[in-house]
Design brief:
single chain; Rossmann fold; 5-stranded mixed β-sheet; binds adenosine-5'-triphosphate; binds magnesium ion
C-alpha cells in the first residue's frame, strides 16, 4: 500500500480527550476516530489490526472445535424476560422499541440468544458437546465510558458458549477455552495473568479473568508469590484478623463532639482504628418503591468495604444499590450521619463483616449526634441479618490460601470465562434427551474476549515516547519502506523494487512515497509502529539502504539488493512461518 494514496492522517498534538497512551497513540496514528463519547470508528490501519486479532481468535477457537456463527445485535426483550435479566441488567442495557412498541435491546452479551437457538435445535445427547461462537459488535451504555477503546459503549467482542451433557463435560469445555485464551493472548504479544474472578451479572459459579498487566488497567489483582493464589481484589477472600481474647466490658456512652470520621474518633478517644466499627449506609432499589430497603454495613474501622462482596451477599444486581441519603434514611432507621453504629439502628438490613464477631470492646457510633459507645460486642449488643466477609483485600494482607503477605497489581481485563452451569438452561428451559430418553438440563459455559479492548491493551504494553511498537502478529503492516526524497530517481527505483519484492514474498508492506520532508516521514513511521523500517536515502547511489526495527534504537546499513530478503526472513521468523 502506498502512503501517498492511503486514507490516513496522523496528529502532531495529543488530543484533549485522551489520557492514557493507547488512546493517545491510536488517535495520533489515525487508527481510530471518535464519533461520540464511547463510540469509535476504525480507519484503515486500525481496522487491519482489529482483523489480525480477530483472525488469531478465530484460528484458536476453530482449533478447539468451536464453530463460528453470527447472531444479530438486535435482541427481543422476551428472551431477557425469560432469563430474568431484562430487569437485572439495569441501565447499561441499550433498550429500544420498534414501531409497534415492542421492546428490544442492543445486545450487551448473548447468553439468552445462544440458549434460545440451542434449546430449539438440540434434542439428543448425540448433538452434545457443542461450542458456538461469534465475533460481533456489543452495546453497553457504560456509566463512565473512557480511555477510548478500553471502556467504550460500542465494542467488538468474541463471545463463545459451550453446551455439555454434564459437569464433567463442562469442565473439559472450560479447560479447552482457558487453554485457547492463553494461546490467543500470547500470540497477541500480551503479558497477562489469569486470575479468579467474580461472575457478576453473567452468573454462574467458577470464573477466570485474563488480565493484561498495566498500570492503567481498571482491574486490581491480588496475588501471592508463595502459592498459586491470584484473584481480582473484588473476588479475593480475606482472612479475618482474630485478636487475643478479652473479657466483655459494659457499654459506655461517651461524648465525642465533631468526630465524624474513624480517624477523628480514634484520635479523640486514643484507640486504635482496629478497635472501631465503621458504618456504611445504602439504599437498595427494588423493582417498585415497596421493594426498596435500607442497608447498614458494619466493618472494622481500618478496613475498606468490597462492594462486590456486599452485592453478592444481598443477592441484588449491581445497579440496584446506592449510598443512602442520610437524612431520608435517618427518619426511617435512626441512623445519624457520622455517628451511626449497630446499637440503636432499626428498620434496615444489617450486614456485618465476619471479622467483627470475634472482636471485643469496640467503639461504635451511638446513633446520637456527637456521641459514641465504647465496649460494643457482637451477639451481646447487636446482631447482623447477614454476617460474611465484606473486606477488600489490600497489599500485605494475609494470602487466603497460605498466609504469606499478598501483593497487588493492576491489569486490563481482556477476556473472561465462566462456568454458567444450568443458570440459563433452567430459566429458559434448554433440555436434551439422554440415552434413556430422559430430559436433562444442558450445562453451559460462556467465554468472552474484548477484541477492541485487546487492541488497546496491546498498544498499552507496546509503545514508547514516539509511538506504537506493534508485535508482528497484529501489526497492520509488517514493513515500511521510506523513500527519503521521491524526486530522486535512484532512490525511487530502489525503493520500488524493494517494495515489490516484499509484496511478492507475501510481506504486508507500506511504501512512504509521499512528497513530505524526511522528518515528517520518520515521525509518522514511529507513530504508526510498523515493526520493520527500510529507509532508502542518499546512499542508494552506492546501493546501500538503512534497516531498522521499530523496537531498536539504531539502524544498520545493508545492501539494497538484500534488504527485502532480510526483512522477509525476519517477518517470517516472527510469525513462526
Ligand atoms: P468490565 O468489568 O470491564 O466492565 P465485564 O466483566 O462486564 O467488563 P464481560 O461481560 O466479561 O465484561 O465481557 C467480555 C469482554 O468484553 C471483557 O473481558 C472485555 O474484554 C470486553 N468488554 C467488556 N466491556 C467492555 C467495554 N465497555 N468496552 C470494551 N470492551 C469491553
Ligand atoms: Mg468480565
Amino acid at each position: 500500500m502506498r502512503l501517498s494514496k492511503m486514507y490516513i492522517r496522523t496528529l502532531r498534538e495529543v488530543p484533549n480527550e485522551a489520557e492514557i497512551p493507547s488512546h493517545i497513540w491510536l488517535l495520533r496514528a489515525g487508527m481510530i476516530r471518535k464519533l461520540v463519547s464511547g463510540v469509535y470508528g476504525f480507519m484503515p490501519l486500525g481496522l487491519r489490526a482489529v482483523r489480525k486479532i480477530e483472525e488469531i481468535v478465530r484460528q484458536e477457537m476453530d482449533a478447539k472445535g468451536a464453530q463460528e456463527i453470527l447472531m444479530s445485535a438486535l435482541q427481543p426483550a422476551e428472551l431477557w424476560q425469560e432469563s430474568g435479566r431484562w430487569y437485572a441488567y439495569g441501565p447499561e442495557m441499550w433498550r429500544l422499541k420498534d414501531r409497534n412498541e415492542r421492546d428490544f435491546c442492543l445486545g450487551p452479551t448473548h447468553e439468552e440468544i445462544f440458549t434460545d437457538i440451542v434449546r430449539s435445535e438440540v434434542s439428543s445427547y448425540r448433538q452434545l458437546p457443542l461450542n458456538l461462537y461469534q465475533i460481533q459488535t456489543k452495546y453497553r451504555d457504560e456509566k463512565r465510558p473512557r480511555f477510548g477503546l478500553m471502556r467504550s459503549r460500542e465494542f467488538v467482542m468474541k463471545d463463545a458458549y459451550s453446551f455439555d451433557r454434564d459437569w464433567e463435560g463442562l469442565d473439559i469445555s472450560y479447560r479447552e477455552m482457558y487453554d485457547a485464551y492463553e494461546k490467543i493472548f500470547t500470540r497477541c504479544g500480551l503479558t497477562f495473568r489469569v486470575v479468579e474472578a467474580d461472575s457478576g451479572a453473567i452468573g454462574g459459579s467458577v470464573s477466570h479473568e485474563f488480565t493484561a498487566l498495566s498500570d492503567v488497567g481498571e482491574t486490581e489483582i491480588a496475588y501471592c508469590d508463595n502459592c498459586d493464589m491470584a484473584a481480582t481484589t473484588e473476588r479475593a477472600a480475606c482472612v479475618d484478623d482474630i485478636p487475643p481474647q478479652e473479657t466483655e466490658l459494659p457499654m459506655k456512652k461517651v461524648a465525642t463532639p465533631g468526630t465524624k470520621t474513624i480517624e477523628e474518633v480514634s484520635d479523640f478517644l486514643n484507640v486504635d482504628r482496629k478497635k472501631t466499627i465503621k458504618a456504611l449506609l445504602f439504599k437498595v432499589f427494588g423493582e417498585t418503591e415497596e421493594m426498596s430497603y435500607y442497608v447498614a454495613v458494619f466493618i472494622r474501622g481500618d478496613r475498606e468495604l468490597n462492594m462486590t462482596k456486599l452485592i453478592n451477599a444481598l443477592d441484588i444486581p449491581e445497579h440496584a444499590i446506592e449510598f443512602a441519603d442520610e437524612n431520608e434514611m435517618s427518619a426511617v432507621t435512626g441512623c445519624v450521619g457520622g455517628f451511626t453504629g449497630p446499637v440503636g439502628i432499626h428498620d434496615c438490613k444489617i450486614v456485618v463483616d465476619s471479622e467483627l464477631v470475634e472482636h471485643k470492646n469496640l467503639v461504635a457510633g451511638a446513633c446520637e449526634i456527637d456521641h459514641h459507645i465504647m465496649n460494643v460486642n457482637y451477639n451481646r449488643d447487636y446482631k447482623g441479618d447477614i454476617v460474611t466477609d465484606l473486606k477488600l483485600i489490600k497489599a500485605g494482607d494475609k494470602c487466603p490460601v497460605c498466609g504469606t503477605p499478598i501483593k497487588i497489581a493492576r491489569g486490563i481485563e481482556v477476556g473472561q470465562v465462566f462456568k454458567l452451569g444450568t443458570k440459563y438452561s433452567e430459566s429458559m428451559g434448554a433440555y436434551y434427551k439422554d440415552e434413556n430418553m430422559e430430559d436433562k438440563l444442558i450445562l453451559m459455559g460462556c467465554y468472552g474476549i474484548g477484541i477492541t479492548r485487546t487492541l488497546a491493551a496491546i498498544v498499552e504494553q507496546h509503545h514508547d515516547e514516539n509511538g506504537i511498537l506493534w508485535p508482528m502478529s497484529v501489526a497492520p503492516y509488517h514493513v515500511i519502506v521510506t523513500v527519503v526524497n521521491v524526486e530522486d530517481e535512484v532512490q525511487k527505483t530502489m525503493a520500488e523494487s524493494i517494495y515489490h519484492e516484499l509484496l511478492s514474498k507475501g510481506i504486508e508492506t507500506l511504501i512512504d512515497d509521499r512528497k513530505e520532508r524526511p522528518g515528517v516521514k520518520f515521525k509518522d513511521a514511529d507513530i504508526l509502529g510498523i515493526p520493520v523500517r527500510i529507509t532508502v536515502g542518499k546512499k542508494a547511489a552506492e546501493g546501500i539502504v538503512e534497516y531498522k526495527l521499530r523496537k531498536d534504537k539504531h539502524h544498520t546499513e545493508i545492501n539494497g539488493n538484500e534488504a527485502a530478503a532480510i526483512a522477509a526472513a525476519y517477518v517470517d521468523s516472527e510469525l513462526g512461518r
